[in-house]
Amino acid sequence: MLFNSYPFIWLFLPVALAGFFIAARFRHEAAAAWLALCSLFFYGYWDVYYVPLLLLSITVNYQIGKQISKHIENQALRRAKTWLIIGLVFDLGLLAHYKYTNFFLDNWVALTGSHINFPDIILPLGISFFTFTQIAYLADCHKGIVKERNPAHYLLFITYFPHLIAGPILHHKQMMPQFARAETYRISQENIAVGLTIFAIGMFKKVIIADAFPEYASPVFMVSKHTGALSWQDAWLGCLSYTLQLYFDFSGYSDMAIGLSRLFGIKLPLNFNSPYKSTSMIDFWNRWHITLSQFLRQYLYFALGGNRKGKTRRYVNMLLTMLLGGLWHGAGWTFVIWGGLHGIFLVANHLFREIFPLARTEGKRWPTLIRTALGWFFTMLAVTVTMVIFRATSIHDALVILKAMVGIASSNHPPLSDIVGHADDGWNLVLWVSLFALFAPNTQEIMNKFQPTSDTVDSQTRWQWRPHPALAVIGGLALALSIVNIGQLSEFLYFQF
Question: Which single residue of 9, 39, 220, 401 has CA 20 to 30 Å from 133?
């Protein structure tokens, strides 16, 4: 079930919301249980076949977490570590089986020429998100940061539907104190108003903006189905269209999740903070998919040694982290290369700062402006170009598009205008949406007065939302326009990851 679907908007959400607050009048535990059951239904609506898998993962991780916490309390550190390893092996083994088996088998067949008759494994919805959430939980249990005695609470923590299939990656200490508060179970006009507004913004981003780009992006990335290469204009239009589509798709869906959660009185962590305004690759990964970046840094980069073992080891750890981060996004060499390139860019960024410290331009207007402008340009160039590799179905297709972007193209490929009929409209769309992404305040900045997420952002914008009839009308119109244009259902892009 998608947030941008009629069954969700007209049936699931009203029933889930009404049932939650009705149950809360009798007992808070009943409301939490109702929300957990609704979340399981939400997950199973897509494919009920994988609900037992989700419940198995939750049960095993809950029991292992109990064992880790017990041994930590008893100072039996070796036993606690053993249980942590067991949990990691289980979680990573489950993820590897469903997400990477076909990838490894295909590569084995390609290398050896052997034939393996093995059925394709369908990727369960949201397995990367709920697996990483539980890995973080086990690691926090081992640190003694959290423990959970109530299985119903743990079930809700993992299955909570606003985050289950699209992220963000949650931490137990962020969420469960909120479910323990009495105020969570009372209807709040502020939460309803703020939640609906954020949901409307996210819906508009997803349905009106993001879903306008596949018309120009998809034909370009279907290059393998054509006989020739692309022109450089078509290649750049397709690349820029996908770059904007992915951001507004993921950012919009994340906003919808934040808004939906706020209706229930719960604040999710921030996952995006205007990443296309970044002036360096370091800045970009502090703004893009923030919860994943934090997870990789905390549980992988630091686990590898971080920066504690010298500069060379630091950069190796950084590169390995991004390579694995790329593989997290998908089982394919394109994702590995994408992650590796971002790792190289991050290393280069850190080396550049060592050679040319930021202090050299601080307080000097023109050098600062020039450095900022150049930083933004090269950052976005790197992000945009690597999006080709991220989106392409094969390395071959990626190379065809990249070659076209630098002018290496054949003349026998039909121009994009012959495929979509109005390529000029695509360029206009890219231009105006790019300006919007670069200069407009983001959702968190607009709603900052009401703290829409569990994180805080430094907002300098004058465009601060407040309860007002005119703003309610605008938000209602944006939501209505989005709902009317749902028509042809567009899948959330990160489902495949």
Answer: 9
